[in-house]
């Protein structure tokens, strides 16, 4: 038996040797090759190339890893989908590498008009014994890598796949299109817009949102160990673009949440309890001008986290974050106003006012408005549901909710009065406040409930909508779902049913716009399509949010086309404000750069930036912990 095995093994070795001889004789190059070489910019590399017959030619999947790691310690990998054909000299390999994609600039390196065309590299890998060797050269003489291919019987490693699809945001109504083209004819004549007016996609006016899963499975298998540049040139711009993709797909949702919660505690929390971005260059904290809103949703995220995990740290965050909300409500001596944000007094910036009395160590930003009031009431409302009876914060929340309700004019309408009146009643037990709450949700609110059930204003017409307003509407819908807790009254139940219907309707209105928080809310209301979308969209959020020095401008790509319709046309400034321009197709979340809140970003935005600022991830945590609480995702997703 042993002799038979030995004979078979010897025969196999001979067969493999003959196969290698046939390859080098130019008869058959199919199979796996071990690749080693030198890149003129990135240095030495090694990897594999898998050659397969395809029609009259061959395909090549070349995957190499550079010896020198990236500054963050990850490996840099280059992946090519190339083509090849046999020649009298050996194997001719050709590859087309994209240059301009999404980033316009990284550091001092910029994309130019010429970069809209791909870089074409070719090499004749000449036979030398059993190996193939050659240098890739561009049409204009650009020098690419020099490499040697050696036959291998090793299994080929996993290869990243291109997987990008575009989904329409709406159906095109021809009558509406013709009317809108007449209305926006002066917009079409603008210098930034006119070059696109003759494009077929401009004339069609069909808007899209992409779903880009390229290299997703590759990163899920490898984890946060590498950045793979697939079918692109390998320079600082493409590496930055693909690093953002890697940061999105390399972690499971639960791991991103764990890291985001840790960052909030260790990086983003100020002494006063406010969350803030951090300038990674100087270490200085910077509070957003929309701080009250982001603070409120962070507090609510920690309420959801505590309800899911009963983690004491989460409840501690609720207490700390809510104290900052209380301070924002009470720090102004003018009771008709309140703060937009807080900072520790020692780091006061321009526009911030130094507090007095017990707030002497705190600075505050005046100008509290409707959006910021949403943040205060969101945090108060959520905190009230978990703070136990007798907790000293309950009295402070109640006092500030009452003050806002009685002194701030905008608090007496819409959902503001519902949330503030309920918080004030539940924390004080005041019968008069209970009556005001019951009046706010009673029969007189039937019209508001109807609007809520239709989507709380979340809709779009031919790609036009108030994208940032959707976030505020979702904050409302989340709160309305919580009215009455475990024992809602008939009126509270009616509002909850309206909010459930509204979430589902809103998702149906803008389903393909990839609004992650909306998908989570609708999924928690039982919409199965929304559940699947929510998980998929949350996977697009990078950890950490991109950091560096870069500009994003989708116009660098030759596929870009401007939308024929301005954003927010009701502002009536589309001929004077370039900020009203938008794209026919936007980009995935990981290509949106530095961002303080993903959920109020416009789906059709085409500009962005990456700065040295590390923004707080309250947006991801808000959606993640609500998704966990609502059963949209599981603990191991």
Written description of the protein model:
This protein has 637 residues and is an alpha+beta fold. It has 19 helices and 21 strands. The strands form five sheets. Strands 1-2-3-4-5-8-9-10 form an eight-stranded antiparallel β-barrel. A hairpin with a 5-residue loop joins β14 (277-279) and β15. α9 runs parallel beside α11, α10 (370-386) runs parallel beside α15 (467-481) and α12 runs antiparallel to α13 (431-441).
Largest sheet: 8 strands, antiparallel, barrel
Helix tally?
Answer: 19
Helix content: 25-40%
Q: Termini distance?
A: 50 Å
List the helices and strands and how they pair.
Layout: H1 2-24, E1 31-39, E2 43-54, E3 57-66, E4 75-87, E5 90-97, E6 103-106, E7 109-110, E8 119-128, E9 131-138, E10 143-152, E11 164-168, H2 174-183, H3 185-188, H4 200-204, E12 208-212, H5 216-222, E13 226-230, H6 236-249, H7 253-268, E14 277-279, E15 285-286, H8 291-309, H9 312-330, E16 341-344, E17 353-354, E18 362-365, H10 370-386, H11 392-407, H12 414-428, H13 431-441, H14 446-453, H15 467-481, H16 490-509, H17 516-524, H18 528-538, E19 550-553, E20 607-610, E21 613-614, H19 618-629
